[in-house]
Write a structure and sequence with these properties.
This protein is α+β, with helices and mostly antiparallel strands and 72 residues long. The chain has one domain. The protein is 54% helix and 35% strand. The protein is built from 2 helices and 2 strands, in the order H-E-E-H. It has a two-stranded antiparallel sheet with strand order 1-2. Strand 1 and strand 2 form a beta hairpin. Helix 1 runs antiparallel to helix 2. The N and C termini lie close together (11 Å). This is DUF3185 domain-containing protein. Keywords: Membrane, Transmembrane, Transmembrane helix.
Length: 72
């Protein structure tokens, strides 16, 4: 399979995952207080939402690359 077609398939899969899962969360360690050499750290969970419009744009771009890749 040609490289543009492969990239198109990957973009379609990523866009579909964005539509299905609608976002993801991750944990990070952050310093919440620092007094002299003493530090207090906390693990904070952050949520990232993937806009539906972005997922649709990625799917459309993937479809376009797939069509172009298959025509060449």
């Amino acid at each position: 399979m040609k490289s543009l077609a492969m990239v198109g398939i990957i973009l379609i899969a990523v866009g579909a995952a964005g539509l299905i899962f609608k976002g993801f969360s991750y944990e990070s360690k952050e310093t919440v207080a620092k007094i002299g050499s003493l530090e207090a750290n906390a693990e904070i969970t952050k949520e990232v939402e993937v806009p539906q419009a972005l997922s649709l744009i990625v799917i459309a771009a993937g479809a376009a690359l797939l069509i172009i890749g298959l025509k060449k």
